[in-house]
Write a structure and sequence with these properties.
The protein is α+β, with helices and mostly antiparallel strands. It has one domain: Heat Shock Protein 90 (2-Layer Sandwich). Helices cover about 35% and strands about 30% of the residues. The protein has three helices and five strands. It has a five-stranded antiparallel sheet. Strand 2 and strand 3 form a beta hairpin. The two termini are about 20 Å apart.
Length: about 130
């Protein structure tokens, strides 16, 4: 299953609702659903805010279920500016909020809460794939 929408911040809710409907079909535990929702918010917001700026492009979100072990794979695709968020250095979370550099905390949370996060740039598309065992 997949959904393609304009990459605007207002569509975070639409993408989250799409994924949540699929998660309900497989009885996804509440904790995993909450972590997935946070990841969707972070990743789709980044696409909306940065991929095409100042233009507006499209983003596709693909939902897949893997069995043995049971996991969901959610793929975010856009053809905006190439950007690999996984190359960004993780923030030093031992520093106080005032000492930390701005940015990077969202993708750090995604990397910590998902079982895998992968990025590739292929055929003029940013492709970011997250996987969560449920």
């Amino acid at each position: 299953m997949e959904i393609t929408v304009p990459a605007i911040i207002e569509n975070v809710e639409k993408v989250t609702a799409f994924v949540n409907a699929e998660l309900e079909k497989i009885n996804c535990p509440a904790k995993a659903k909450a972590e997935i929702d946070i990841a969707i918010d972070e990743l789709f917001s980044n696409i909306a805010n940065y991929a095409y700026n100042p233009e507006i492009g499209k983003a596709t979100v693909k939902f897949e279920v893997q069995k043995n072990p049971m996991a969901v794979i959610i793929t975010f695709m856009d053809n905006g500016k190439p950007y690999d968020p996984l190359k960004r250095e993780d923030p030093n979370v031992t520093l106080s909020v005032t000492e930390r550099q701005i940015g990077g905390l969202g993708i750090f949370m995604v990397k910590k809460s998902m079982d895998s996060v992968e990025y590739e740039y292929k055929d003029n598309h940013n492709i970011l794939r997250i996987k969560k065992h449920i």
